[in-house]
Design goal:
heterodimer; A: 379 residues; alpha+beta; 6-stranded mixed beta sheet; 6-stranded antiparallel beta sheet; 11 helices; B: 460 residues; 5-stranded parallel beta sheet; globular
């Protein structure tokens, strides 16, 4: 099948979604130009916690997450990299009865929906798998085959591979307006105008602004979830650990450093590209980490940071065709888009080529907001 | 629990911080001084109280100049919190501390940051070998514990190098050699500013005395254009190349390196204050007005952390910033401020000369050999940085992701300037365009339990 358009498709945003889309399109021989106001993986895609999980996802998101896992399991061959995906398991531990209760309800709910990938493991099994866990753990919900990856490395690898296949990246280039001109679109940037038939909006926290330029009103809020990284310790953990009913993601990197994320938000300053850490929030999720791994009391924290991420009202991403022909949106991943990246890139490439997507994207339709503007938040 | 609030929070108890506290407490403002050292005095007056008892002469008169200031500070009524580290200041002027294993948050009407200077990195081949340390480190050992090494070699340039070598000699330690990298080109650019320097005749005389005493007691090697530390697992000596092309090798297990000091901007940058590249002193410094007020109306910066001026200038800068704050609290201090402004200018009159004379030549600011380690925390070599630049890293923050330089414990203190200069020379950009690392809290490492203590005790 030949390219969908002779003019290059313009992708706005060089995060994981934009880079993956550029990769799949380039692989299919479709010329693309990716523009980004900063550089590749500058925000959430480069600095997120790196969780590669199907565990704990909204049921609507599971098929997409499962499709993404197919790509993750062959990521090294796909992108010509080494150890791109640290595949082990991801577990959310129950630290108290409320957590255990939540776990059993979650597993029942998934079974009812026809998914078997999340399973309960009891205390002894869990302590056998992770001996350093607190002895007071009750058990946990586990997905075998989930794991973690280095966000910047993967985002960069999609970029590199896309470039090798002919994609063009222009950074730092800011889009100032998008206007229809007859049958095609004019994307005006601070570095000249690009004419194209199809615009793909992968602008993350800035996606709402880009959508507005195309005439779509898609509400998006920017937040900055915080993370910390610690000094190196002897390796004691290969898997990723979270907490049932809490917000924790805990992993140890190959060099021994631990990355701890907790969903707690810092301050996102979208206009100035800046984030600020809030000490009390950090303290709260580091305490949760302490409840799970008490032996880490005296380990030093080297850095805390936060990446700017776009959140939708229902915490599900916006993936699909916009109001006008030739506009495709893929943003608003609400802090769980990294693992989805490869499947989203594939799906957006399918939409560009006007093909049937592998996964049904109805739950992510941009139009869900237009239809019910006062839909209540599920958060 | 509500945060404790103070009218004035001073960070750092060196000359600037101590002097500022004298002024704010005298005006009746509730003042707390937070210091990450065990005792007030900063680096320059380190361990002054203890040393005063035995008063070793080798520390020199300039050290004991601090006695009166330290005494007045002890009596001034400011709350003094030694062993207490500031690890973040938020936009809302919430100051995060950690002390004795516990974190605290305090707030302030005004903050004076007086965190002083750090040594400029000197990335010569072998500088990470055991036996090699900075001159500042060597001087700290001397002041803190009266520890010195026999047969050491001092390499580099700048007042602190000569002072410490002089103190070594006066302490009766044999100094094997002083290898001076100051070039004739620097002399030529500094000489026009010599008349200004003579507005500080005391300082000029002191410097001449140090140099004279050093020459009489050890070998001084000049016209050095390249330096390398010799040794595989331990420093065994230093090899230097002269401008004539000759090579000299000197054996020693103790090599002390120094090529000047620069403002310690880690806290001020992490706080998000505006900074500018100082072309004369070749370093970053915070943007301040004449009283020390930063780009944040509530935050002042005094002393070497605002631009290198030395201890005496720091005292005046501390007084000046504090006076400006006192004035903003409704107690005009026009004459005092004018007096401090003039005296500050006077003390700085020697800087144009010193900055030019002791600016290390570019080939000493940049590493020469491929295997030279640039980022010590993450063991990133010059070759690694070059490779990252070749593969498209376009700035210091991207470079972190490409090769991990600047990602370790020290938050770039020992590689930031080197990496930035390497990028600038690779891209042809100015240092301002290249910019510096985005710095992240905690400004100094704190433990998980310390951070979590804001919530409660660490789980068992």
């Amino acid at each position: 099948m030949g390219p969908a358009a002779t003019r290059p498709v313009v992708i706005i945003g060089a995060g994981i979604q934009g880079c993956a889309t550029a990769f799949f399109l380039s692989q299919r021989g479709q010329p693309v130009i990716v523009v980004d106001k900063d550089h590749v993986g500058r925000h959430a895609s480069g600095v997120n916690a790196g969780g590669v999980r199907r565990l704990g996802r909204d049921i609507a998101e599971i098929p997409l997450s499962v499709a993404a896992m197919d790509w993750w399991n062959q990521i090294d061959q796909l992108l010509d990299i080494d150890k791109g995906f640290h595949r082990q398991f991801y577990v959310k531990v129950a630290l108290d009865d409320a957590g255990a209760d939540l776990a059993s309800r979650r597993i029942q709910q998934l079974h009812k929906a026809g998914f078997q990938h999340e399973t309960w493991v009891d205390r002894d099994q869990l302590l056998c798998r992770i001996p350093h866990l607190t002895k007071s753990v009750l058990g946990g919900v586990l997905v075998q085959g989930d794991g973690w990856a280095l966000p910047w490395k993967i985002t960069r690898a999609f970029h590199d591979k896309a470039v090798a296949l002919g994609a063009e990246f222009r950074t730092p280039v800011t889009v100032t307006s998008i206007d229809r001109s007859g049958e095609h679109w004019q994307v005006t940037t601070d570095a000249g105008m690009i004419e194209t038939d199809i615009v793909v909006n992968c602008a993350g926290a800035w996606g709402g602004r880009i959508a507005r330029m195309t005439g779509d009103v898609l509400p998006i809020e920017a937040h900055a979830p915080m993370l910390v990284i610690t000094d190196r310790q002897p390796i004691f953990l290969q898997s990723v650990v979270g907490v049932m009913g809490g917000t924790l993601s805990f992993k140890q990197l190959d060099n021994g450093s631990m990355v701890i994320g907790g969903g707690k938000r810092g301050v996102a300053d979208v206009a100035r590209n800046l984030t600020q850490i809030i000490p009390a929030g950090l303290s709260s999720f580091v305490m949760t980490a302490g409840r799970v791994f008490p032996h880490l009391r005296d380990v030093a924290i080297l850095r805390a940071w936060a990446g700017i991420e776009g959140y939708t009202k229902d915490d599900l991403p916006i993936i699909g065709n916009g109001g006008e022909a030739g506009i495709i949106h893929g943003f608003g991943f609400s802090a769980h888009g990294f693992q989805l990246g490869p499947a989203v890139g594939e799906a957006l490439a399918d939409l560009v080529m006007a093909r049937q997507t592998r996964v049904n994207l109805a739950a992510f339709s941009p139009h869900r907001f237009a239809e019910s503007p006062d839909q209540t938040s599920r958060r | 629990m509500a945060n404790q609030h103070f009218q004035i929070v001073i960070i750092g108890a060196g000359p600037a911080g101590m002097a500022a506290a004298l002024t704010t407490t005298k005006a009746g403002l509730e003042t707390i001084v937070i210091d990450d050292q065990k005792d007030n005095g900063g680096q320059v007056y380190r361990n002054l109280q203890a040393n005063q008892k035995t008063s070793p002469a080798y520390l020199g008169q300039s050290y004991y100049d601090g006695v009166k200031l330290a005494q007045s500070f002890a009596d001034c009524g400011a709350i003094y919190r030694p062993d207490c580290t500031v690890w973040q200041i938020t936009d809302t002027h919430e100051i995060a501390l950690v002390s004795q294993g516990k974190a605290e948050l305090i707030t302030a009407d005004y903050i004076i940051i007086a965190t002083g200077a750090i040594e400029r990195p000197m990335p010569v081949k072998g500088w990470t070998l055991p036996g090699v340390m900075s001159v500042g480190g060597a001087q700290t050992l001397l002041k803190q514990a009266a520890i010195g090494a026999e047969d050491a070699v001092f390499v580099g340039s700048g007042p602190l190098l000569y002072l410490t070598a002089w103190q070594y000699i006066k302490a009766g330690l044999s100094v094997r050699a002083v290898i001076d990298i100051t070039g004739t080109k620097q002399w030529r650019s500094a000489i026009p500013f010599a008349p200004l320097a003579f507005l500080q005749p005391g300082m000029v005389a002191m410097g001449r005395k140090w140099l004279g005493d050093i020459r009489r007691n050890t070998e001084v090697i000049n016209h050095v254009i390249a330096v390398e530390i010799i040794g595989q697992s331990q420093a065994q000596g230093v090899s230097c190349t002269l401008s004539t092309g000759d090579k000299i090798e000197i054996g020693s297990n103790h090599i002390f390196l120094h090529q000047g000091v620069v403002p310690n901007v880690n806290l001020t940058m992490a706080t998000g204050l505006a900074h500018q590249w100082d072309h004369q002193a070749h370093c970053w410094r915070p943007v301040i007005d004449v009283t020390g007020k930063s780009s944040d109306e509530q935050i002042y910066i005094a002393g070497d952390g605002a631009g290198i001026g030395g201890a005496k200038a720091a005292v005046i800068a501390g007084r000046l910033a504090a006076s400006a704050i006192v004035a903003r609290c409704g107690k005009p201090r026009f004459l005092a401020q004018l007096y401090y402004k003039l005296r500050h200018l006077h003390y700085l009159s020697i800087r144009p000369f010193l900055d030019r004379l002791y600016l290390p030549p570019a080939h000493f600011r940049l590493a020469q050999a491929d295997e030279t380690i640039i980022c010590r925390c993450e063991a990133v070599s010059k070759a690694d940085v070059d490779a990252a630049l070749d593969s498209g890293a376009s700035g210091p923050n991207q470079l972190k992701a490409f090769c991990r330089a600047g990602m370790g414990r020290c938050q770039g203190r020992s590689c930031g300037l080197v990496v930035q200069e390497m990028i600038a020379s690779h891209t042809g950009q100015s240092m301002t365009e290249t910019g510096y690392y985005r710095l992240r809290p905690p400004v100094k490492p704190i433990t998980l339990a310390e951070l979590a203590s804001l919530e409660g005790p660490w789980p068992d």
